[in-house]
Specification:
two-stranded antiparallel sheet, 249 residues, 2 strands, mainly alpha, single chain
Amino acid sequence: MIQAIYNTHICWPQISPSTKEIIRQVALKSLAEFSIACALFALCAPFAAPGGVSALAIGLMIQTAISIPLRIWTYTRRAPLDIQKGQSLLAWNFTLLSSSNIITLIHELGHFTAIKRCIPNAAARIILRPFQGGVTIFAKPIFLAKTSYAFIVGAGPVAAVAFAALILIAALSIHTRHPEIGNTCLTTAVFGFVSHAAYALDALRIGPFVRGHDFSILWGMGIHPLAAAVAIIAIPILIAKVHLARQGN
């Protein structure tokens, strides 16, 4: 009986080289994406509001749970349209559940930096509400020049839009060589521009001089929300046109 067990050969299913390569690519890309998502989690966590760290962790788990089967589906497709669809879904999955919070953090860091520049001794603090927004709290002095206050209020949107512009330039530069990374950078940039244009237009609903709304305050200082939204949307269009013109040359 013992001899019979030792002579038994287990027949494992044969895996083709192409399947092994798909498994290897899925594992490597998923690990790389998870590592980047963890790094973004580590950047955002110190600023998170109570309960915010749990929200970030849940977002990370959901993102990973979606990305692995979606990546397997994408890498096993043959039709170019299906591959592009899968890559776009992967990019938006990462953007909405990870890099969207970085856009918010960059926005608040813009406010924070401007506060420290205009009010050196101010006790400013960033509070990040994952997937909802953020706020930078500081004690406004009684005597603060209008230009300084406008600089503080405008620094947040400017920082986030500038970051989105840099990400868009990077996306257009590497998209051909690294389509998956390029798509992720592209969706992150699009989210940054669109979310801030929508934020500007939201000021039309509440009117000028409403505390806590950047574009409402800027409206009260002379910058109309519609003009701000048009300017924000014009930036990626201009970048895309310049990129296409350089490719044509």
